[in-house]
Amino acid sequence: MKQYTIAIVGATGAVGVEVLRTLERRNFPVAGLRLLASARSAGKTLTFRGEEVPVQELNEAAFEGVDYAIFSAGATRSRQFAPAAIKAGAVVIDNSSAFRMDPAVPLIVPEVNPGDILGHKGIIANPNCSAAILSVPLWPLHKAATIERIIVSTYQSASGAGAQAMAELESQVRQYAAGQPITREVFPHQIAFNLFSHNTKVAENGYNEEENKVREELRKMFHTPEMPICATCIRVPVFRAHSESVVIETARPLDPAEAREILSKAPGVKLVDDAAANHFPMPLEASGDLDVHVGRIRKDLSHPRGLALFISGDQLLKGAAWNAVQIAECLSKA
Fold this sequence. Notes:
Number of helices: 8
CATH superfamily of the largest domain: Dihydrodipicolinate Reductase, domain 2
Oligomer: single chain
Strand order of the largest sheet: 3-4-2-1-5-6-7
Shape: globular
CATH class of the largest domain: Alpha Beta
Strand content: 15-25%
Largest sheet: 7 strands, mixed
Distance between the termini: 13 Å
């Protein structure tokens, strides 16, 4: 089996750490590993397969001999250093928003559009976490009955804003329990025991950046540039894993029993739909799972071709690290 040299840009961040764990979890054929981060993280070590691997400072010379460079350090770093990685011969798998809507860059969820990988020109983009998680269970339903409209409300965990946001949620819970004043630095509002509209800028169309990403990125992956999609994205006081309440309208009626049958066989999906026990997808159970949990499947009684469902998926895994490693797996088998 061929072995690969992998670079992880942003290796010490929440997603970078999960990329490292996922490479190990999947037993990816790693011959060499470059852990790249800012100068302040250089010299730290992370464990991979029982060995301590030093973190190196990110610079343009760091990509020599790298096969796949997985970027998880934000759009600015991706735009700055991706050209150097490509020039060195690496394929860039980028977790940021830098290249997602570039027509020349494939936006990939392997369960949805793996064939688009072959059109890459050195960069493959990972979708926004909410769009990635949403796409996995909707794609098999779209293939079966053609989705004509999507209405989705997201319940997004602190992990979507990184390790510091998760720490802020924990800190605020402790402060609340101790009767202390609530302090905040990462989020614009208190996150503990609260929820608020996603903390991204609201555009002229009235939707914030996260909501616009969900719409445009899903359209790109599904190759449906005009699909009507209405998204409402909300931050909730959950440490890890995003949830989504979804209503779809299809070209032909899709019975809940048929939908369950389709989803029970769909790749990357775990059916969690036990009405008798009132047991449906929960972020607590989706955390750490590579699959997207889907359930609460029922007819939309307000529309003759409507179907409602509820989804939970690990933002750090299927929404980021696992999807990136999965793309690398597809490349290694191409």
